[in-house]
Inverse folding.
């Protein structure tokens, strides 16, 4: 990443106004959104929307042609273009033909996308944004930092300053007064403008209608008062049937601003009469700008299901730290990264795609059912494919793809790190694991890795057999977690097998876009883990479990090594995370915990992959409660801890404040102990508490459960 | 249905009233306007895009209220304090009103004045958008308008503020004996 990009990030995370406003908003949003959807079947609604939008995206050209035919039959003029320059020229021509000198606009991301305002202004036309947030950023001369709340990064003091200059009067920071200033200043502009420009939230092919959703009432004025109205519509807004509008109206306001419905919705079908009796000149510009190309790409077609609600920004733990401006483009956040990669060019997204920590929050709330993390992974893959890996990455993954060398280096690290070890933490982890220790200590590499300890444990024979996949962190940094897992399974009479040839699960390579490296890791692991007669393939690392259960087959398929796919799928079918397996064993009466002791209060941190990919969150809680712990929930228990594998090394500027929030939420519960099911989260959070000094113990659930195991006979 | 609508509409800042007869409604409207200081001056008068008052109230009583205007124009609307119109449907699940506002006068009186007074027939309350879509036809209604509470923004520091470009107040008056399009 370039230094300038890193600097932009640092400025953003250290801007208390920005992070304060975004943080407050995103916390409130979660609660309010849930309330807005209360009593509704969100899954059914978003399936309906995904179906509606995907169906239109399948034959965009035809749907656009139907829209054109129907809208023109009603008297609208429809202009279709794939070229932003041509769109701008058309709009200017309409303005010139109608003698337009002033324009009022309601909020439209499509006009931002093509930088329409500066173009019109250069050509002598005065343009006023009328959405309050857009007007503020127009006066400030900046770009929107959020799709729905463009000026969320600004304080009332800054707004008062801007407005004071604009009306040449000293204004206080009283918000209702500032809003009134906007009303009074913009009202004459509405009345005198000869042309109104809007976007559209939906365009209906069947009826030639456009739908506008606003809260302020500006779109009603923009489409009513001037004699000419131009609506600039991205073709992804098209739906086939009028009835589909109802579904989108159910979801859009709820997901965007947690409102059951915005103050105003206008459904405009063809031109209406102006107040002087003349017919309004209605132009609808259907803009493609790479959208059809996107629809043809099997990996990115789903992006056209987006209804532009911005909920992916609202729930993103990264966006809440950095805001929209670090994205350096019109569209921001998760969806913004994808749109920038397409509308601008893939290379433009090289830095911003790295901002995604792959926590999966956005996928949970998306009303269009977009898998944004997956699309960002695909961008990474294509970037690496086109441009190759960096030299540093090539060196790292060269090592990771050679198990003997990789493990040899990890063993060497345990010796090399000795002089720097303080307690169980070292100040500088050697080799490729960077020297980052800001706000977090890193674990020492264990003197004896799990793989060397395992041989000493006698295994029960004859009943069931589980293959244990440790993953690098448990194997080399936290062997005690592996020992706990073995104790739990042995307790139920299950024989544990540990194939020595197992190696890195490939997640670090995969999440960096190095799919070939990940595929080789998959192949090596498949060969190692196929054990005759095994009933389970079990892991105590959710990221590794996801690799085994989902990613191996997908990765091998993508890179064209199909011959391995059936074997990957066979292993996936046996794969289970430790919590789920132990819960089953407890329910079956094969494992139980000691009773009678009162244990300390405990809080539980949900790991991203466990909760949102593997859908496991109740099991570890129930097990810990059964083991005698009194569970108390922390605020935002399932928000990412900021680890994200190598993310915390690449973007410590963002990872550190996310961790800080997590630590604060844990401390707030007053529990002296926090449990989790992921060794990566343990690394991050335990390291954080080591630096923080709060004395909260951080443990993998497996260890807590193994300690409480009732050992019969 | 009415109670649900009222709760939702009040939840988003609208004021909701209900009267059994047209006469009671008309009396309420006049008293409301007088109470709010309606007058025949810019920024004080009321603009009606509906004949309701003229139909129900005699000319003598109407003339006693200064600042009641029935000829809607853009310039009059831009200086009116009150806009009075009839809305066709009410949606219980979101507290919204819906009307075919293809006629520009309907939009002028409901978007430019500070206070919008909306008359609705009590038997035109529908459950929600899905039910509404069974009744509306965009080819017949060229400008369908949904209004849910007053104009609002939260663009400055996420603080909810009422009355940006549209009305600051939305006063909804249900009339039981106002015949509407039956659901």
């Amino acid at each position: 990443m370039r230094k300038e990009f890193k600097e932009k990030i640092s400025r953003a995370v250290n801007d208390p106004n920005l992070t304060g406003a975004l943080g407050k908003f995103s916390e409130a949003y979660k609660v309010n959104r849930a309330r807005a959807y209360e009593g509704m079947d969100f899954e059914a609604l978003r399936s309906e929307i995904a179906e509606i939008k995907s169906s239109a995206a399948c034959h965009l050209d035809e749907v656009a042609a139907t829209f054109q035919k129907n809208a023109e039959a009603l008297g609208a003029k429809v202009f279709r273009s794939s070229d932003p320059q041509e769109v701008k020229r058309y709009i200017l021509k309409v303005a010139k033909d109608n003698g337009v000198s002033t324009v009022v606009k309601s909020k439209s991301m499509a006009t931002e996308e093509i930088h329409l305002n500066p173009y019109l202004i250069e050509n002598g036309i005065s343009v006023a944004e009328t959405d309050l947030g857009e007007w503020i950023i127009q006066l400030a001369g900046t770009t929107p930092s959020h799709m729905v709340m463009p000026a969320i990064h600004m304080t009332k003091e800054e707004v008062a300053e801007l407005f004071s200059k604009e009306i040449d009067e000293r204004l206080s920071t009283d918000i209702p007064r500032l809003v009134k200033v906007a009303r009074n200043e913009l009202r004459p502009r509405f009345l005198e403008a000869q042309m109104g420009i809007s976007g559209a939230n939906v365009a209906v092919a069947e009826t030639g209608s456009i739908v506008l959703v606003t809260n302020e009432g500006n779109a009603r004025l923009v489409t009513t008062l001037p004699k000419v109205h131009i609506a600039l519509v991205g073709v992804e807004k098209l739906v086939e049937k009028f009835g589909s509008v109802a579904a989108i109206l159910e979801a859009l306001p709820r997901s965007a601003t947690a409102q059951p419905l915005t103050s105003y919705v206008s459904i405009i079908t063809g031109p209406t009469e102006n107040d002087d009796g003349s017919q309004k000149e209605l132009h609808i510009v259907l803009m493609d700008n790479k959208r059809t190309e996107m629809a043809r790409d099997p990996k990115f077609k789903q992006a056209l299901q987006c209804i532009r609600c911005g909920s992916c920004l609202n729930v993103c733990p990264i966006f809440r730290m950095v805001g929209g401006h670090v994205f350096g483009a019109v569209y921001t956040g998760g969806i913004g990264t994808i749109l920038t990669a397409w509308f601008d060019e893939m290379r433009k997204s090289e830095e911003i795609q790295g901002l995604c920590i792959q926590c999966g929050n956005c996928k949970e709330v998306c009303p269009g059912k977009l898998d944004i993390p997956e699309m960002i992974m695909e961008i990474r893959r294509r970037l690496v494919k086109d441009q190759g890996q960096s030299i540093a990455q090539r060196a790292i993954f060269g090592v990771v793809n050679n198990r003997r060398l990789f493990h040899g280096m990890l063993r060497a690290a345990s010796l090399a790190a000795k002089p720097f070890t303080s307690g169980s933490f070292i100040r500088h982890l050697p080799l490729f694991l960077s020297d980052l220790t800001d706000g977090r200590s890193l674990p020492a590499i264990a003197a004896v890795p799990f793989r060397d300890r395992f041989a000493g444990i006698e295994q029960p024979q004859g009943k069931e057999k589980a293959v244990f996949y440790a993953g690098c962190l448990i194997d080399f940094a936290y062997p005690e977690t592996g020992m706990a897992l073995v104790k739990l399974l042995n307790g139920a009479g299950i024989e544990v097998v540990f194939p020595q040839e197992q190696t890195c699960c490939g997640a670090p390579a995969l999440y960096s876009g190095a799919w070939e490296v990940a595929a080789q890791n998959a192949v090596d692991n498949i060969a190692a883990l196929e054990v005759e007669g095994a009933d389970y393939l079990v892991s105590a690392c959710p990221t590794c479990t996801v690799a085994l259960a989902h990613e191996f087959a997908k990765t091998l398929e993508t890179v064209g090594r199909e011959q391995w796919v059936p074997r990957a799928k066979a292993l996936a079918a046996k794969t289970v995370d430790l919590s789920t397996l132990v819960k089953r064993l407890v329910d079956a009466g094969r494992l139980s915990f000691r009773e009678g002791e009162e244990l300390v209060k405990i809080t539980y941190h949900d790991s991203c992959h466990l909760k949102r990919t593997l859908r496991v969150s109740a099991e570890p809680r129930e097990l810990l409660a059964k083991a005698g712990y009194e569970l108390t929930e922390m605020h935002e228990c399932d928000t990412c801890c900021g680890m994200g594998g190598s993310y915390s090394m690449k973007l410590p500027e963002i990872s550190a404040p996310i961790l800080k929030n997590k630590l604060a939420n844990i401390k707030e519960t007053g529990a002296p102990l926090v449990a989790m099911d992921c060794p990566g989260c343990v690394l991050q959070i335990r390291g954080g508490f080591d630096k923080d000094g709060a004395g909260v113990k951080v443990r993998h659930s497996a260890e807590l459960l193994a300690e409480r195991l009732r050992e019969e006979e | 249905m009415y109670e649900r609508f009222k709760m939702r509409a009040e939840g988003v800042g609208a004021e909701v009233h209900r009267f059994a007869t047209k006469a009671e409604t008309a009396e309420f409207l006049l008293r409301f306007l007088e109470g709010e200081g309606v007058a025949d001056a810019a920024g004080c008068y009321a603009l009606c895009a509906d004949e309701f008052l003229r139909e129900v109230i005699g000319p003598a009583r109407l003339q006693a209220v200064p600042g009641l205007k029935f000829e809607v124009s853009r310039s009059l609307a831009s200086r009116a304090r009150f806009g009075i119109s009839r809305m066709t449907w009410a949606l219980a699940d979101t507290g919204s009103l819906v009307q075919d506002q293809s006629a520009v006068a309907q939009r002028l009186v409901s978007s430019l004045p500070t206070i919008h007074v909306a008359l609705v027939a009590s038997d035109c309350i529908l459950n929600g958008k899905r039910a509404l879509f069974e009744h509306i036809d965009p080819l017949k209604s060229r400008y369908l308008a949904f209004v849910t509470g007053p104009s609002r923004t939260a663009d400055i520091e996420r603080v909810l503020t009422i009355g940006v470009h549209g009305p600051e107040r939305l006063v909804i008056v249900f009339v039981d004996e106002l015949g509407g399009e039956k659901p």
About this structure: The first strand of chain B starts at residue 15 and ends at 19. The CA atoms of residues 9 and 95 of chain B lie 4 Å apart. Residues 22-35 of chain B form the longest helix (14 residues).
